[in-house]
């Protein structure tokens, strides 16, 4: 096993995005990618084992049960790129199944260095796998991996855990299209998608009784305090989870408990919050099977196969670039 990490992501970029999101007219917002610093990544690991949050277990169950079937539908030799590898635990099933047939180059692409380190550590013991980590935005990383692959190799992109659902509609379709543009016909995308389920079950999953998801959300303000010297007073804000019927998505917001002013010196601005005003921090879309086929085809993929978890409705979709 070899590991190597290629890095980027700057405080200047965070400052620019925080300023743009908090000073925009109407609904204040912050990009959900900033939830994942080292504290946020660790909290997300805890979320993934909470009883209320079945998504990660469903994803893992499907990969554990079906990785051999998935691998049987690929055309070796294969290079594997993973967008947002997280801890790498779920990926193990796919890499072990692939490495029974061939030596594998595995390229995790992560904006969180902490997650990249966790994933490299988790997968270091698989023999026939070379790991080259990319600390990059997804599409930038994917472009680099695609440019490095050898002639005749199929690229398998793993986009697991329903992270696609965190792109605000219709940005998920746009993202799939951009991904398709970096791939060649015959390349594969294994896409994990959380499926529709009753609103009360979803609200419990995104507002758990231990308050871990609340801490995960509020850590975004703590991160801005740490990295941009801001003075958010965390006890003056609260976590809110809502189900938006129109979009079929769970939204996370941070609500100001009172009217207050916050200054963010490293981003050179200060901002007033009204009592009850929210910052929208994440959307998590829940798909129907029809919708998955539709957006895949619209993005230039053919839906080859789907594996579905019955316990926590979730689909693993094998898409082939048309
Ligand atoms: C990473 N992503 C798929 C998670 C989700 O369910 O949308 C992030 C998350 N947010 C709150 N809990 C989990």
Bound molecules: N,N-dimethyl-L-histidine
Low-confidence region ranges = none
Tell me the series of helices and strands, N- to C-terminal: EHEHHEHEHEHEHEHHEEEEEHEE
Provide the structure class: alpha/beta
Number of separate strands: 14
Question: What is the average per-residue confidence, as pLDDT, rounded to a whole number?
Answer: 94
* Radius of gyration using CA atoms only: 20 Å
Q: Strands of the largest sheet, in order across it? A: 1-5-4-3-6-7-14-13
Describe the protein.
- The chain is an alpha/beta fold.
- Helices cover 37% and strands 28% of the residues.
- The protein contains ten helices and 14 strands.
- The strands form three sheets. Strands 1-5-4-3-6-7-14-13 form an eight-stranded mixed sheet, sandwiched between helices. It has a four-stranded mixed sheet with strand order 2-12-9-8.
- Helix 2 (38-47) runs antiparallel to helix 9 and helix 3 packs parallel to helix 4 (91-99).
- The chain is globular and about 60 Å long.
- The mean pLDDT is 94.
- Bound molecules: N,N-dimethyl-L-histidine.
- N,N-dimethyl-L-histidine is lined by residues 47, 55, 161-163, 165-166, 206, 213, 282, 284.
């Amino acid at each position: 096993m070899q590991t190597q990490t290629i890095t980027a992501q700057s405080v200047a970029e965070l400052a620019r995005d925080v300023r743009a999101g908090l000073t925009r007219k109407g609904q204040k917002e912050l990009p959900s990618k900033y939830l994942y610093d080292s504290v946020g990544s660790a909290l997300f690991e805890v979320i993934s084992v909470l009883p209320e949050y079945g998504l990660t277990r469903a994803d893992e169950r499907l990969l554990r049960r079906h990785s051999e079937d998935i691998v049987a539908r690929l055309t070796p030799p294969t290079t594997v790129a993973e967008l947002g590898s997280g801890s790498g635990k779920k990926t193990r099933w796919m890499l072990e199944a692939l490495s029974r047939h061939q030596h594998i180059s595995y390229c995790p692409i992560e904006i969180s260095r902490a997650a990249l380190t966790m994933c490299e550590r988790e997968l270091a013991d698989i023999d026939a796998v070379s790991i080259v980590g990319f600390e990059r935005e997804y599409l930038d990383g994917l472009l680099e991996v695609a440019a490095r692959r050898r002639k005749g190799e199929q690229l398998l992109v793993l986009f697991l855990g329903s992270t696609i659902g965190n792109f605000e509609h219709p940005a998920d379709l746009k993202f799939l299209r951009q991904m398709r543009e970096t791939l060649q016909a015959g390349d594969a995308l294994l896409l994990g998608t959380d499926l529709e389920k009753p609103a009360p079950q979803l609200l419990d999953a995104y507002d758990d009784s231990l308050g871990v998801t609340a801490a995960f959300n509020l850590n975004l303000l703590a991160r801005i305090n740490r990295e941009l010297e801001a003075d958010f007073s965390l006890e003056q804000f609260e976590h809110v989870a809502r189900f938006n019927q129109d979009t079929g998505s769970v939204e996370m917001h941070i609500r100001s408990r009172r009217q207050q002013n916050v200054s963010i010196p490293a981003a050179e601005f200060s901002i007033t919050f009204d009592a009850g005003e929210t910052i929208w921090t994440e959307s998590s879309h829940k798909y129907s099977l029809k919708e998955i086929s539709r957006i895949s085809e619209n993005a230039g993929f053919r839906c080859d196969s789907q594996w579905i978890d019955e316990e926590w409705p979730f689909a693993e979709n094998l898409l082939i670039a048309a």
